[in-house]
Batch of 4 targets.
Target 1
Amino acid sequence: MPTTRDIRILAEVHRFRTVTSEHLAALVFPGVGARTVQERLRRLALAGYLDRRYFVAVRTGRTPLTRLRMPVYVLGSAGHRALFGAARRSEKHAPLATSVEHLSHDLVAVDFLVALEVAAKSGDHDAPVHIESVTEYALRKRSRGAGLRLIPDAAVTLRYGNRTAAFALEVVRAPVRRGNATLTRKLRGYQAAARDGSLGRLLGAPVRAVIVALRTPLREKRLRAAGARSGLIWTVPYERFETAGPPATHFTPETILTLPMTDLAGRTYSLGAPFTPERETPSPLR
């Protein structure tokens, strides 16, 4: 029978749908060594409570095989029965992404949500209060019947003193040479949804920014050069280093609140202080 902590692990896996041991260590095992966490997850996987998935490397001669052996965890059939039996409710076991690209995309969003949630709950008096983290899957369920065409990859709501702000996340994994026109159209759609209030209604709070997470600073610069000047759209390069396994991002509990994010008008903010720009950089749009 799963323990109380096991049930919490299963609940977090179900909430985020796709996680690594690093995510679960931050959420459920603060201060516990990595080997202890991995052994606990291994036992749950052997019992069918969790399923382990691995990235498959396509050898190109360029991509390092870093993190390739790191498993990705999803809820197993026994875990689903244990979790919803304990909660006295049922829900269909929703399909999960299976391709490497989709898993990588989803894991970047989970990195963002987990890092913010852990940082906001750290007890630091300067940290905002965490209100809600929402995955793309949960946002799609929430938007049913609303007629919304744009669904963010994730969203988080934070409170700063007496001000509450929602942030949407759009993850872009396409390389520099592809997708700028499509992405620019999507960002204009977000701007329209913010103006008419539909994005705020979806997120349940006033929208401070749509954060566009890009793989590299070069993609960020080209997007700023191609887009309209906007204080709503913030860009941030997320890739810490290239890997053939789960992505390694700058979204960690230690850095997420101070990570510089630049709007399309060239002003730099952070999630720790989202209402006052830290500095203004020359914009290619001027």
Note: The longest strand covers residues 163-172.
Target 2
Amino acid sequence: TYHSTLTGWRASGERVKRGLYKSRDGWVINADCNGSANIMQKVATQLKLNLAEVGRASLTVPQRIDLFSRLSKSYRKRSEASCRSTERSRRSLQTEA
């Protein structure tokens, strides 16, 4: 990363496994949410954001959004067919290798 070696910097936790971060206090946090919160913290003063409303729950249990439910049925069927086709192609390439 850009200027990744900062003097005096120390990690406040550790990566448990892919996608999960464990804080020094023992909280297991979604890694993407943790990164977003860190970025938000850096720019909060510049954008005049009130971070008091950002609770621990938003980091430990992020909201899931079903993108497909908002799409038309015909578009969903085309997308699912395309995904199946891509998966079949990937599998056939793996068996050839």
Note: Residues 73-96 form the longest helix (24 residues).
Target 3
Amino acid sequence: LLLSALGGGLGRPRRLGIPSPEGERRMTNAHLKVLHFDLESSLEARLNIGAFSKKGESYYGSIIDLVHRYNRSISDAELASTVLAECCDLELSKQYIPDTIWRLMLRDSGVSANRKIEDLTNDEIVKLNISLGKILYATRNSIVHAKSNYTPTGKECLNKDIGALNEFMKVFCYAIIMHNNNID
């Protein structure tokens, strides 16, 4: 459902199950709002240091760093991970992620399969979100570019799990909508 919205330009969205270009625009606007909110929060924290602090090269460099991180986060490859980190509670949505994808996420992020999700550190959650974002992006590309010269990366969702992944995407879309409503 959202696979195509995560990647930006789609070609023919109706073939992928997106109800309309208007629905796609709403999703695109929603995830851009998430990114803008994140950037604004980070900038506000940086700029609200106080009138008496010395603003040196490192201070301005940190602002430029924020802008570079924001620009990277809106690239197609990073977008899914950025939105996942901001909108999706991995602990609550894990039950909807297909097992094959979960195992791939654990392997890619170096997290032990024996650990409970509620015991993971923030760094491990970030790594899992990055891995899931890469899987979603690779799956999106494999669908959109299936008939062109697409080379599989090994991170794509298996065809047998697409239905289960779609269920996760419905939960993910709902989380994005709820997050978007909370930041308006």
Note: The helical segments are 3-6, 21-47, 57-73, 76-87, 90-93, 99-109, 122-144, 162-183.
Target 4
Amino acid sequence: MPHYCDAADRIGSPTGEMRVSGMSGRGTRASRSGDREAIPGRKRGESVRAATAENLSAEGHVGDDAATSAPPPPARQDRQPAVDIRSRESSAKAARQHRDSVAASWSSPPAPCARAALKEPVLERVSRHGTVVWVGVIATLAAAVLTIRSARYDWFGDELYFVAAGYHPAAGYVDQGPLIPLLARAAHAVAPDSLTVLRLPAILAGVVAIVVTAALAREFGGGRAARILAAVGYACSPYVVTQTASLSTFALDSTAVAVLAWLSARWVRTRADRLLLIAAVVAAIDLQVKLLLPVVVGAFAVGIACCGPREIVRRPALWAAAGIAAVSAAPALLWQARHGWPQLAMGAVIRDEQRAATGGTAGLPVQLVTMAGVLGVVLIGCAARGFAGRRLRDHRFLAVAVCVMVVFVAVTGGRPYYLAGLLPVLFAAGACVLMERLPARWSRVAACTAATMSIVIALGVVLLLPSGSPPRPVGTRAELSTRMRVSGTTGWDALVAGVSLAAERSGPDHARTAILTRTYWQAAALARFGPPGLPPVYSPDRGFAEFGRPPPGTTTIIYVDTDTAETGLRRTFSTVEPVVRLDDPRGFPGIDAHVTIWRCAGPRDTWARLWPELTTDILDPGI
């Protein structure tokens, strides 16, 4: 305790009176006439220090070092006067008073400097508590805003597909794991018409990512301002708007990757192997969402091999975690193997889609800037400086992992949001570096200014999207991608009405009639919104092809396809004629624009043979 710092300094005065001056132990003796008297047989000052040291040693408070920590004053060279009886009594009384004062000092409150030392942990706890409160406020406000706006977008095609897939449970699917379809089915069972309930998992994932970003800033050594700035950076990034706008695989996958990055950074600081087991659980869950995680883990492995910490490889908990993750992925991998690894075949399809919609690899930098936002770009630049220097040397493996993932997306033509799970790493690192580079008096002002600007921009985007104005006609995939971000998908009612009209015109024999669609979006919409009595719906597109094909007795097909599909349909059916055409100039391509509903009869082969020929992974909107 700080009492030890003051005890020896209080021994210097024969009367025990001293004015304490900080933890250094220096004091000022009170001027008294009795200071010149001494106890017989000892020099002045030595008698009192020896007596007090004996008393303190007997009471068990301090040892010899504490009792003699104050250097004795130089011995007087003049001759000591004789001591009479009265002097002896006075000196003995002074010694008793000093002993009592020292004993009282041990039970008295600590000196001001000692109290300050005691308050340091308390202040640290208060600061940490304040940071938690601020991050909680940011996450809560973001959750409220995102939840309020969650129903403004209409159903996305993938969401309709997830609901349909939930009613066809399997260990794996063509382009995702089983978890998202199960969540979609649960939401549909609880509240069939609520888009808010359906999108709650995505909103929750976005909010968790905000908190994880702040937690990463703490692992990187950031203070309160850095953690708050990191949380604001993610909460106001354009990506979080996309992440929470619909139920999707990347909404949950990116947050899971961020959690794994945080656990890795925390392990570097604490070396607690239980974190590796927690990471195994997170990885096991993420593998039920998407099979992209092995690529991310490979990027982490490259980073550790280049920059360390290589000690992690010698930890048994790491290999136990790898075993847990492998066991969890086994059912999905077996499903992929039995179905010819469709996940790998999707790579070429995604590359073509990205090239048409965003420019592919050439457009990747623009897409990354669009995901990060203005504040995010600043933080990423600061993070690059921090990882290049000594500031974040222990966590440099995360920077290498980011670089590996960027190369992977650029080479394979993958989707830009494959990198989104590592945005919290860059935001947190950049916030720490930025707050440390700024002078102390500027840090709070800079953080508040950046946060205010980002919040205003984010609120503007959230309040303006989706746009209420009539959508503009689109003629290219790039324009279609922009329209989806601005206005979402529209036209489901027109599609259902057109197919219902075509079914009525095809005749009453629905037992031999089925509906086939060009895209899995169309099939999922008809399965979700179709009226009672509508013929069964099938689609040879992507995952919907695994849900079944028309039965052998089916002779009439209502085919929802593009305007130019007649030539291909005549190779499959003997009779092909258009029944209904959907071509709203402002409609959504593939839903209520560039769509023709055909009546086809007389299949040229059995459905068991025709189905593999019709199956495709291409999502063709007709433009």
Note: Residues 3-110 form one domain.
